[in-house]
Amino acid sequence: MTTRRIRGAAAVLATASVVTACSAPGSGGADGAAAAESVVIGVSTEPDTLSPLLGYGKDGNSKIFDGLLARDADMNLRPALAKALPKITDGGRTYTYTLREGVEFSDGEPLTARDVVFTYRTVLDDDTNNTFKSELAAVEDVRAVGDDTVVFTLRHPYAPFAARTVLPVVPEHVAGKQDPNTGAFNTEPVGTGPYVLVDWRKGEKLTFKANPHYWGGAPKVKKLTMAIVADDDVRATRLRSGDLDGAVLPPNLAATFKNDDDKKTYRATSYDFRAVTLPSGSPVTGDTAIRRALDLAVDRQAMVDKILDGAGRPAYGPLPVDDPWFAKDVERSRDLAEAGRILDAAGWKEGNDGIRAKDGRPARFTLYYPSGDKVRQDHALAYASDAKKAGIDVRVQSATWEVIEPRMKHDAVLAGFGSIGDPDFGLYTLLHSSLAGDGFNNMARYDNPAVDRALETGRRTQDPKARKAAYDDLQRALMKDPGYTFLTHIDHMYVLADRWTGLTTQTEPHEHGFAAGPWWNVEDWQPAP
Amino acid sequence: MTRLTARRALYAVPVLGVVTFGVFAVAAASPFDPVKAYAGTAALGADQETLDRLRDNLGVDRPFTAHWWDWLTSAVGGDLGRSTVMRQPVAEVIGERLLWSTLLCAVAFAAAVLLGTVLGVLAARRPGSLVDRAVTSLAYTLEAAPVFWIALLAVWLFALRLDVLPAGGLTDTGSDLVTFGGLVQHLVLPAGVLALSQLPWFTLYVRQGVGDALAEDPVRGARARGLSERTVLLGHALRSGLLPVLTLIGSRVPELITGALLVETVFSWPGIASATVEAATAVDFPLLAALTTLATAAVLAGNLLADLLYGLIDPRVKLEEM
Questions:
Q1: Nearest CB partner across the interface for A40, out of B89, B167, B174
Q2: Cβ atoms of residues B289 and B24 within 8 Å
Q3: Cross-chain CB nearest to B169 (options A49, A227, A440)
Q4: What span, in angstroms and rounded, lies between the C-alpha atoms of A341 and A289?
Q5: pTM of the predicted structure, to 2 decimals
Q6: Which residue of B has its CA nearest to A201?
Q7: How far does the signal peptide extend, from start to end residue (chain A) (predicted)?
Q8: What is the CA A463 to chain-centroid distance, rounded?
Q9: Chain-chain contact of A238 with B45 (C-beta, under 8 angstroms)
Q10: What distance in Å separates residue A339's CA from the closest CA in chain B?
C-alpha cells in the first residue's frame, strides 16, 4: 500500500504553460514533457453541480476538493485533510478527526474545523436538496473543538462511518453566504484540492488548472480538461482524431484501439452489478423454489462473454468475486437439472406448452428494463431465454422509470446498482426488510430475517473478523433464497494516451467516468521518461 | 413601418402570456417527474424520505397556475428566477448560452439563404436542364437526410478522414480561450450542417418562384424588348420570384430552432438548444418558461421581419395598410 509517494523532492521546474490561441486540432502528438502537462479526457456525462453540499464528489476523487479521508489505489482509507485516521471511542459512537496543519483553500483562506462542521451540517439540513443525505443518517451531531478538531457523534455504532468522511469539505466563508441549492458555488466552487476550476461550459467541457499551493505538492499535470461527449461513437471518433487524449468507452469501441501504439486500454473492475429484482409480493417471483430455479438456470458466463464482450464478471451476489468481502463458497455453476428438480419438488409441474404451473397458476412474470439502455436490454432478453429452459415464462418489456416505479412492487426490474467503500453501503439499502419499497431501496421488497441480522451485525460491530463472518452469512442466506438474481458485474473500459507512467484504476461504483477511471489520481501522474 | 412594429409588439404581450401559461400546463401534465429529473441517477437509489423532501423543496405538488403566476410576477419585475436543473439563476443560463446559439443560427441561416437563392436561380434558368435536375435531386436528397446523420457524416469526413476541421466544441478541447480564428474554425461544421438542413426548402422555393416569374408576361415582355438575360433574371424574375421566399424566412424560425437542437447535440455546442431539452424533461418551470418566451419571441420577430421585408420589396403591398 503506497500511502505517501515521495513527491517533489527535487525542485519542480514549473514551466508556466502559457495558453496561446488555438493551435490546429489534432496537435495532441506534441512530444515530451510539454505534452504530459496537459490532458483532455472525454466522458459521457457531467455533474449537475460542482457543490459537495448537493452531493458532488461524495465518494471522493473530486479534483477541486478534499475530504477528511481519501482512498488509495487499493481502496484503503488514508488521511487527506485529516492528519490521521479518526479516533473511534464511546463504543463506536464518537469519531474524532484532527486536521492537517497549514491547508489553505485555493483563495488563500486557511481551512479550519468550522468549515468541516459547516459542510456536514448543510448537507444534513432538510432544506438542502441533497439526494445523499440519508447516507449520513447515522450522524446525530458534528461539532468543532478549537480550530483543528472535529467530533462526530453517531446515533448508533456504525462501523463503516469513516468511509463516508471522504465527503469533500467546502469553505464556509464562500458557500455560507449563499443558498446551497442555487448559489454561485454550484458553478464556481472553491476548494482545497489539487485542481482549481477555470471554466465550465455546461454540456461542452470543464477545464481545471493545477493548484500550485496544493498541500500534497503541485501536480505534474498542469491542465486537465473534461470534455462532455454523450455519444459513444462521437467520443471514440474524437479520441481517434487526437482531439481527446483519453475517454471512457463501451467494450466494443475500446477494442478498436487495441493496436494503437500510443494509446493504452485500462479495464477497471467494479461493484456495478446488473440483477433482476424478484418482488416478494407476487406469488410467482416471491416463491423460493422459482427464485432458486432462476438462479441456477441463468448462464452468467455467457452473458459476460456475449453481452459484455468479456469485459465483466459473473455475479453470484451483490459483492464482486474479487472483493475481499466476497464469500468464496457461494460461487455456483449453471445447473438446469437441479433447477428442474427444485421446481418439481415444489409442485411447479410442466404443462403442454413447456411452461410450468402450480395450482393452475402459470410460472410467468413481467420483467421491465429502462428503455434505451442496451446493456440492460440484452441482459433481460438473455435472462428470459435462460428462464424458458427451466419452464419459466419471463415477458420482457421496456419502459421509462416513471412507468416502472409504480410497478416495482409486483413486476421484476432489470436493476443496476453498486456502491464502493463498504459492503454496508450497498447491501443495507438493497436487502434490509425495513427499507422494502422505500423509494428505490430494496426494490424486490426482500424480507429475510437471517439477512437482516447479518446486516445489523455488520454495521454495528467494529471487529473486522466479526464483520466478515456476518457478511459471509448474509451471502449464504441470499443464495438459499435469492430474492434478486444477480447476473454480472460490469467492467468499465478506458482508453488513454500513453504519456504517463504508473497509472492505475480503482474498483469503481455504479456511477463512473467523471471521478472514476485512470484519472482518479491525475494529480499523482508522472510524465513518461 | 414603426406603427406595424409597435402594433406587433403590443400583440406579442398576450401571445407570450398565453404561450407561457400553456407551457406550464403542458409541463405539469407531462409524465416527467421533476424530482427524478433534478436528482438524476441519484434518484434511482434514493429512499422515500429523500424523494419526499425534494418534492416538498421543489414545490412539485403546488398547482402549476401558482408556479406560473409566481414566475410571471417576478419575471415582469426583471427576476427570471432560478433554474433547478442547472442549479443557477435563469438569467445566467441564458446569458452564457444565447450568444453562441444566435451566432450558430444566424450564420447557418444566412448561408442557407444565400446558397439556396443561387442554386434556385441556377436551376430555374433552364427547367429540365442538367443543372436543374442535379440541384433538384440534391435538394430532395438533403430534405430526406436526417440532420443528425449529416452531422455525424460531416464529423467523420472533415474531422476524421481529412483532419481539417475540429469535431466539436467551441474551442479546441485543450484550450479555453475563444479566439476569432478558433471560433471560425469550430463554427464551420455545425453551421454548415445546419445550413444544409435548411437548404432544400429555400432552393426549391426559389426555383419555383423564379421559374414561375420567368413565365410571366412582364418577363416575357422584357425578353421581347431584347434586354439582356442577366437584367431579365436578376431585375425582373428574381425580384418577384423571391417574394414567397421572404414570407418563408420568418416561418422557418421554428424549424431552425429544432435543427439547432440536433446540431448542438452532435457538436457539443454550448447553446440554448441543449438547455431547452433539459429544462423540458426536468419540468424546470422557470428555465422552460424563459426559453419558451425566447423561442416564441424569435418566431414572432421572424414573422414581423418577413412582413416588413415583404412590404419593402413588393410594391403592391403598403406597410401602412398592414
A1: B174
A2: yes
A3: A227
A4: 10
A5: 0.80
A6: B270
A7: 1-21
A8: 25
A9: no
A10: 32
Of chain B, the end-to-end C-alpha distance in Å amounts to: 9
User: Which phi and psi (to 5°) does residue A79 adopt?
Assistant: -65, 145
Do strands A393-399 and A364-370 pair parallel, antiparallel, or not at all (unpaired)? parallel
Which residue of chain A is at minimal alpha-carbon distance from B90? A182
Question: If DSSP codes are grouped into helix, strand and coil, which group holds residue B82?
Answer: strand
CB-CB neighbors (< 8 A) of A49 in chain B: 87
Please state, as a whole number, how many other Cβ atoms lie within 10 Å of the Cβ of residue B8.
17
Note whether B179 contacts A243, CB cutoff 8 Å: no
Mutate to test the interface with B, among A37, A179, A205 (most CBs of B within 10 A): A205
Residues B125-181 have pLDDT tens digits of: 888 889 999 999 999 998 888 888 898 889 888 877 787 887 777 777 767 677 788
Mind listing the pLDDT tens digit for each residue in A36-90?
899 999 998 888 899 999 999 998 889 999 999 999 999 899 999 999 999 999 9
* A109-131 b/e (C-beta count within 10 Å ≥ 16 → b): eebbbbbbbbbbebbbeeebbbb
Cell 412594429 found at: B5
Closest by CA position to A354, among listed A342, A362, A365: A362
**Amino acid at position A18, single letter:** V
Q: Which of A480, A513, A471, A508 is nearest to A494 (CA)?
A: A513
Residue/partner pairs of B252-258 with CB below 8 Å, 24 or more apart: B252/B109, B252/B198, B252/B201, B252/B302, B253/B298, B253/B299, B253/B301, B253/B302, B254/B295, B254/B299, B255/B198, B255/B201, B256/B105, B256/B108, B256/B109, B256/B194, B256/B198, B257/B105, B257/B295, B257/B298
Q: At what angle do helices B285-313 and B243-251 cross, to 10 degrees?
A: 170
Give the tens place of pLDDT for each residue, A203-245: 788 999 999 999 999 999 999 999 988 778 878 888 988 889 9
- Between the CA atoms of A229, B175, A207 and A9, what dihedral angle is there, to the nearest 10 degrees? 130
At A60, list the grid cell.
471522493
The answer to whether A159 and A41 are in contact (CB under 8 A) is: no
DSSP-H helix ranges across chain B:
2-29, 34-39, 48-58, 64-76, 90-125, 130-144, 147-154, 180-214, 217-224, 229-230, 238-241, 243-251, 253-266, 272-281, 285-313
SS3 of B50-74: the string is: HHHHHHHHHCCCCCHHHHHHHHHHH
Cell triple for B255? 424549424
Residue B138 C-alpha cell reads as 440534391
- Reported for A341-347, long-range contacts at CB under 8 A and 24+ positions apart, including other chains, are A342/A289, A342/A292, A342/A293, A342/A296, A343/A289, A343/A290, A343/A293, A343/A390, A343/A391, A345/A289, A346/A287, A346/A288, A346/A289, A346/A290
Q: What are the cell numbers at A426?
A: 450497498
Cross-chain residue pair B87–A26, CB shorter than 8 Å: no
Q: For residue B23, which amino acid is it? A: V
A401 chain-B contacts, CB cut-off 8 A: 33, 36, 44
For residue B109, CA distances in Å to A115, B37, B275, B302, B305 come to 52, 33, 21, 12, 14
Under 8 Å CB-to-CB from B49, ≥6 apart: which residues? A134, A438, A439
d(CA A241, CA A245): 10
Does residue A126 contact residue A136 with C-beta atoms inside 8 Å? no
Residues 6+ apart with CB under 8 A from A181: A54, A127, A128, A129, B57, B82, B84, B87
The answer to whether residues B30 and B283 touch, using CB atoms and an 8 Å cutoff, is yes
Strands (E) across A371-419 are located at 393-399, 412-417
Query: What end-to-end distance do the CA atoms of chain A give, in Å?
Result: 24
As a whole number of angstroms, the distance between CA A216 and CA A522 comes to: 13
Residue where the block lists cell 436543473: B85
Neighbour count for residue B230 (Cβ, 10 Å): 8
The x, y and z cell numbers of residue A117, run together, are 462542521
